[in-house]
Write a structure and sequence with these properties.
Elements (H helix, E strand, L loop, with lengths): L1 H34 L28 E2 L6 E8 L6 E9 L6 E7 L2 E6 L1 E4 L8 E9 L9 E6 L13 E4 L10 E10 L5 H14 L3 E6 L4 H13 L2 E5 L26 H11 L4 E6 L4 E5 L5 H12 L4 E9 L13 H7 L24 E5 L4 E4 L4 E4 L3 E3 L5 E6 L1
Parallel strand pairs: 2-9, 10-11, 10-13, 11-12, 15-19, 15-20
Antiparallel strand pairs: 1-2, 2-3, 3-7, 4-5, 4-8, 6-7, 8-9, 13-16, 14-20, 15-16, 17-18
The structure holds 2-acetamido-2-deoxy-beta-D-glucopyranose (4 copies).
One 2-acetamido-2-deoxy-beta-D-glucopyranose binds next to loops.
Length: about 400
């Protein structure tokens, strides 16, 4: 009896073992995949074994609160373009909060303190909080500090250090060759469910020559998350977790009376500024527009062909502004005939706006001069706002509508 059971068991093990080994192997792949990509390292737990697309965890925008103050630090970057190099910290602070910051810079094994100055961005849409740049001059003998912490000179005059550090990024510059030709920054995705429009936009952007789309994500539907995971795995999307709600109440509106809260539209402006610096030396051009907007060339097929035309006409490194043309998503025109009607049929079940069925273009409104988005050389720009660059080295140019237009399906 025992022998029979043992035989059965042995046979069972014999059959099951390959499956078990296969399982182990799949998990190991996933595990090592994470180990081999230290740039994605975070404190989140490793992904589950059977995660569909083996998505590397995104690098979060690290938020650090300055003790005793209402200032929040988003990220830190070495600023190479000022007369004396500085560390620029992108921050969020109550606009009226008086502050006197000390920077603690980690230089090799030593810690050095310098006194910072700061500037609040002029675009705040009258919210209580605004975006600020805290600038830390580099101490002598410390050209590339690896980390920085900030304390308040008022709250903590001794400058004792009880703060978390931010990693200083952009220690090296790059002006010649970039991993990406075009990067698009989508700021503050929240409550997002418009799957079809997202997929159509991401596919369209790739056709235009875009290699990277950076998405600052607060939250979205499960279906949307699957799409984001797919494109992250593909190498197109970098998803940056973006939630300020632990620290302050963000508004859903772009003016205080459009949505209660202390900071403009989910913190869109600090997110855009982070994107500018994060990709400054990684991308040749940076485009700033939302997920429901597409800049479409009118005489050529892609941005790769469009940019040389713009540079020839207006000069290089300008801020190219594209006027917004609205395609209301409540007006349906007969959709174009696609050769593959099956494809069209299968879109019928995907939730969201099909941008290809909204072909009616409204006439340009009187506000056309503020409704635009831009493509820039990020190394020429210092700060960004919703519609463009607040501060940059070169002036802007309006791109004429025979060259390109921005299609806004809203
Ligand atoms: C960038 O554009 C050039 C052509 O201008 C192309 O050869 C290259 O492959 C593109 N790079 C990427 C990452 O797509
Ligand atoms: C998404 O985030 C916003 C802001 O934190 C919150 O108000 C909303 O309830 C969240 N939605 C979901 C579905 O979790
Ligand atoms: C956000 O607002 C609510 C209601 O006004 C308040 O109770 C809460 O403390 C606020 N949260 C933060 C983080 O300030
Ligand atoms: C769309 O959904 C309907 C009802 O659930 C289903 O019968 C149909 O097969 C689906 N079509 C496609 C292309 O998936």
């Amino acid at each position: 009896m025992m022998a029979l059971k043992f035989k059965k068991l042995r046979r069972w093990i014999f059959i099951a073992a390959p499956f078990f080994l296969l399982l182990l192997w799949i998990c190991r792949i996933n595990w090592t995949f994470h180990l081999w990509t230290p740039k994605y390292q975070t404190f989140s737990s490793p992904k589950k074994c059977f995660n569909k697309h083996l998505v590397p965890p995104a690098q979060p925008a690290t938020l650090v609160a300055v003790n005793g103050m209402k200032t929040l630090l988003v990220s830190a970057y070495l600023e190479h373009r000022s007369k004396v190099k500085k560390v620029r910290i992108i921050a969020i602070k109550p606009r009226k909060e008086k502050a006197s910051y000390l920077c603690h810079l980690r230089c090799e094994k030593k810690l050095k303190i310098t006194r910072a100055d700061y500037k609040t961005h002029s675009d705040h849409f009258r919210f209580h909080y605004g975006t600020a740049d805290i600038m830390c001059p580099l101490p002598s003998g410390c050209p590339t500090p690896s980390h920085v912490a900030v304390t308040s000179a008022h709250v903590n005059p001794e400058g004792t250090l009880d703060q978390d550090f931010l990693e200083v990024q952009n220690l090296k510059t790059e002006f010649q060759s970039f991993p990406f030709n075009f990067t698009v920054c989508f700021s503050t995705m929240f409550d997002y469910t418009n799957v079809l429009q997202l997929v159509q936009s991401l596919e369209m952007l790739q056709l235009l020559g875009v290699n990277r789309v950076v998405i600052y994500k607060t939250n979205c539907s499960l279906e949307t998350q699957n799409v984001l995971d797919y494109y992250t795995h593909k190498g197109l999307v970098e998803e940056i977790p973006w939630s300020l709600s632990k620290y302050l109440n963000v508004s859903r509106g772009w003016l205080p009376n459009h949505g209660p809260g202390e900071l403009h539209y989910f913190g869109q402006i600090p997110a855009l500024n982070d994107c500018l610096y994060r990709y400054m030396y990684k991308t040749k051009y940076l485009a700033l527009h939302d997920v429901d907007e597409l800049i479409l060339p009118q005489s050529v097929d892609s941005w790769l062909e469009l940019l040389p035309l713009l540079e020839k006409k207006f000069g290089a490194n300008k801020r190219y502004r594209f006027r917004s043309h609205v395609f209301p998503n409540d007006v349906l025109l007969p959709p174009p005939i696609f050769p593959n009607t099956l494809l069209q049929h299968s879109w019928g079940n995907v939730s969201g706006v099909n941008i290809l069925s909204h072909l009616y273009r409204e006439p340009l409104p009187s506000t056309a001069w503020i409704d635009f988005k831009i493509i820039v050389n990020p190394r020429e720009v210092f700060s960004l706002t919703v519609h463009g660059a607040l501060k940059s080295l070169k002036p802007f140019e309006w791109v004429t509508s025979d060259m390109a237009r921005m299609y806004h399906t809203r």
